Amino acid sequence: MDVAELVRLRTRHPEAIAEAAARRTRRPLLGPSGRLMILAADHPARGALGVGDRKFAMANRADLLRRLCLALSRPGVDGVLATADILDDLLLLGALDGKVVMGSMNRGGLQGASFELDDRFTGHRPEDLARLGFDAGKLLLRIDYDDPGSLNTLESTARAVDEMAARRLPLFVEPFISRRGPDGRLRNDLSAEAVTRSIAIASGLGGSSAYTWLKVPVTEDPDDMAEVMAASTLPAVLLGGDIGDAAENRAAAYEKWRGALQLPTVRGLVVGRSLLYPADGDVAAAVDTAVGLL
C-alpha cells in the first residue's frame, strides 16, 4: 500500500479519480449465481471506528485499504459499499474493476450525536453515482417514534428512492426501529415485531419500488426470520454489524446468516467489520467462510 503515491495523485492529479472511474470495467449487479457478497466499509464517515473492544480499529486508512484489497481479491466477493473517500482510493488502486461499487449516501447522523436520527444525505448523491458509473447506492433509515429527526430522514429517503429509480440505479435501504436508552445511546430494536414494521415502512417509500432493495438484520430469534421477511417481496441482503471478537459470537452469526439465506427474498450478504477485522487477523479466511454461506 503506497500511501505516498495516493497522496501524490490526489495533490497533483485529482482528475485521476474520475479517469479511473471512467475506465473501470463494470459488471451486472447480480452474477450467474444470483447472489451478492458485498464488503461494507462506510462506517468511518459516521465516526464509527470501533470493532468489538478495539475502539479505533478502523482509524488507520492504509490498514483499512489493505484489508479491503485483500478481501476484494477473494473468490466470490462481488463488490464493496463505501463512502467517496474510500472508493476514490480504491479506484486509484485499481481494486474495483469487475466489482459492484455501491456508494453510501447519508452519513450525517454521526454516532452519538444529538442529531443522529436527522440523518442528512452528506455522502453520494444519485447524480454522483450515475456520473461515476457506480452500480448502486445505500442509505440507512433509523426510525424513532419519539424523535422528530426521523421524519426528516424518512422524507429524504423517499426522495432518494425516487431519484435513484429515475436513473434506474438500485438503492439498498437499511431500515431499523430505533430507541434511545436511559444513557442516551441509540439502539436498534431487533425484535421480530420491530424488524417487520421497519421492512413494511421502507418498502413503501417513494413513487416506485422497482429499484429498491432492503438491507436487513437477522432478528434476535433467527427462527422469526421467515415470518419477518414475508412482510415484503422486495429483494433483500443481510447486514453483518459488529458481532464482537468472541469465537462463539462469530459462529452464532454465521449460523444465523446461513439460515436466513435460505429464504426466497434474501439474495446475499453485506458485511464489513466482522470480515475485515476478525479477532484472529485472518481476513481471507473470514471472507471465504462468509462466501461459503452463499
UniProtKB/TrEMBL annotation:
Pfam families named among the record's database cross-references: Cgl0159
Domain spans labelled Cgl0159-like: 34-291
Protein name, entry field: Deoxyribose-phosphate aldolase
Organism: Streptomyces lasalocidi (Streptomyces lasaliensis)
